[in-house]
Known about the structure:
By secondary structure, the chain is α/β, with parallel strands linked by helices. It has helices at 19-29, 59-72, 92-101, 132-147, 166-182, 191-195, 203-212, 231-243, and strands spanning 3-4, 33-39, 78-85, 106-109, 153-154, 187-190, 215-219, 247-248. The chain has one domain: TIM Barrel (Alpha-Beta Barrel). The strands form two sheets. The chain has a five-stranded parallel sheet. A three-stranded parallel sheet has the order 6-7-8. α4 (132-147) packs parallel to α5 and α5 (166-182) crosses α7. The structure holds zinc ion (2 copies). One zinc ion is lined by residues 84, 110, 112, 155-156.
Amino acid sequence: MDYNFHTHTYLCHHAEGDMEEYVKRAISGGVKYMGFSEHFPLVLSNGKQSPFRMYVEDVSLYRQTVDELKEKYKGKIQLYLGFEMEYYPGNFSRMLENTKAYGAEYLIMGEHFYCPEDTPDIYHASVKTEDEERLRAYTAAVVEGIAQEIFTYVAHPDVLHFVGNEALYQSEFRKICQAAKVHKTPLEINFLGIRTGRYYPNEKLLQIMGEEGAPVTFGFDAHDAQSAYDGASLEVALSLVKKYHLHYIGKPPLRFLQ
Ligand SMILES: [Zn+2]
Ligand SMILES: [Zn+2]
């Protein structure tokens, strides 16, 4: 695996390690194309900033560091500056403008929430739920996000921890797989989930991805330098591709922001 476009940094307050160490580790694993995809900064309606993301005031440091590393490791690895970001219907055009102002070359969608975190009754997608409205809201937002044809891919599409009605799970997640196919937007098998034994990758979704022929890619989702290459999880991911007859496309074509 010579690519990885899902990399965080200490700037999001829940990852660690020097950015250069991530780059060195990736090179040592044979990565040729690497993107930093820090959690996109978001100022909430009360003026505060969402704490699990990088802060607006750190964007210039982020850019500067990626630029320096690009130059320093030229010829060894191709680096890109991106963000992992939610698709919030209604807020997206403003968020997209900001990503461009911040110098982003590409985006991946990570739908940890489906509306801004200061919305009443908001919950993180990882919270177990049987609520069918939440499921519908999540899949509708992801499908609409995919249809923008702006995101390079969808990170951990199975981040919604729905444990309710099985048939509804199937029909809702099938919509995501079909949209992914129509809009040529790959769905990620997330290595952070594999490494740490999370509830994703969810094999129920992999089954549907295989049936629908949705394009599939891989992402290390590194939150520490060691995970900027993850060969152990790669083995697991490749076995899942085989088991569910997934349409694995390898390195996803980057959708460069204009
Ligand atoms: Zn994170
Ligand atoms: Zn994520």
